[in-house]
Design brief:
This is VOC family protein. InterPro entries: Glyas_Bleomycin-R_OHBP_Dase, Glyoxalase_6. Pfam families: Glyoxalase_6. The chain contains four helices and 16 strands. It has helices at about 15-25, 80-90, 140-150, 205-215; strands at about 5-10, 30-35, 35-40, 55-60, 70-75, 95, 105-110, 115-120, 130-140, 155-160, 165-170, 175-180, 190-200, 215-220, 230, 240. The longest helix is centred in the middle third of the chain and has 14 residues, at about 80-90.
């Protein structure tokens, strides 16, 4: 397989301000590839590399607020680290949010534009992921989604149950991709999607055909005439490359 998961893409009303928040939150560098786009990645990062899934913020005229089916979870190394990170994120503009999480040890916050994310309590599983522990996708059937994504990208399945599936790069580095069963999995357009990239990049058409054979479908999200292809997986999650 030749596809890599390279970044999480957020739609933003003010990409510069949101970029500053996430650069501070993650301790990453901030750059721009053009007007309306902010790129976040670890300082000195040689992109693309599975040791990190980067973040792109793209300005759109009206970044509609909808229930987020994709969110990121941040790793911590101790209870003190978790408390300190939560306090710092609130100072940067994050706010506590009730996403129906109930009584859990992690802290659920929303960034300044309302994107929900979690700051996890220290877990051994995430001790070497970097600041992003996992990219989490809500879905109706984790087993079905892992069948698709397990073929789509070159990642290994680490856990698989009816309620949760975990994948990670075959190199054993970087964050996990988690598919988590959610009780209300309606097909809605999300402000967040995944970006994947073929290696070599010239294999784009070949990889599009392969993904369509696995069950992906072309998607029109208003992208217009662009060099990338937007697809939806069997869970109707938008992603592009």
């Amino acid at each position: 397989m030749t596809l890599q998961l390279v970044q999480v893409n957020f739609k933003a009303g003010d990409e510069s301000a949101l970029g500053r928040f996430w650069a501070e939150a993650l301790g990453w560098g901030l750059s721009s590839e053009g007007p309306g786009v902010i790129n976040l990645e670890p300082v000195g990062f040689d992109w693309p590399d599975p040791s990190a899934v980067c973040v792109d913020l793209v300005r759109v005229p009206d970044p509609e607020t909808v229930r987020c089916r994709v969110h990121i979870e941040l790793a911590t190394t101790s209870d003190a680290h978790q408390a300190k990170l939560v306090a710092r994120l609130k100072e940067l503009g994050a706010t506590p949010v009730d996403a129906g999480q109930g009584d859990v040890p992690g802290t659920v916050l929303a960034d300044p534009e309302g994107n929900v994310f979690s700051v996890l309590e220290p877990r051994e599983l995430y001790r070497d992921t970097g600041p992003v522990a996992a990219v989490v996708v809500g879905c109706a059937d984790p087993r079905a989604l892992v069948r698709f994504w397990g073929e789509a990208i070159d990642w290994t399945v680490h856990e698989l149950t009816d309620d949760r599936a975990l994948l990670r790069s075959v190199k054993g580095v970087g964050p996990y991709l988690e598919f988590r069963r959610t009780p209300d999995d309606r097909a809605v357009r999300s402000r967040v999607h995944l970006d994947v990239m073929p290696d070599p990049v010239e294999d784009q058409a070949k990889e599009v055909a392969r993904l369509e054979g696995l069950g992906a479908a072309r998607a029109d999200v208003g992208q217009g005439d662009v060099p990338w292809v937007v697809l939806a997986d069997p869970n109707t999650l938008d992603y592009q490359f």
